[in-house]
Prior knowledge:
The chain is globular and about 45 Å long. Helix 1 runs antiparallel to helix 2 and helix 2 crosses helix 4. The longest helix has 22 residues, at 27-48. It has four helices and no strands. The mean pLDDT is 85. The protein is mostly helical.
Amino acid sequence: MTKAEDRFRKAEESYKDAKRFLDEKRYHDCVDKIHDVIENSIKALILLHGMDYGPTHDLLESIPKIIEKIPKDNPNFYLYSENVLPPLISMHKVLISV
């Protein structure tokens, strides 16, 4: 398993926990797990594009670098740059301050 796959696996586990916490009305724990989902997903994308994020939880500086790594003619460029990463940035900004 690659490091990126491991991060996606961790994100998936956190998502399952978040769903369970939501059902149990443990909202604070749910929000915490959703933050883990976002953070691990961003870290996986960073790793997939051959970059490293170091020992940090603040990944906002890395996100524009992901977009720079995607060739403009790649069919996923618009998806990442306009649809996927901006909401992740917004959610991460809010959750990192909680």
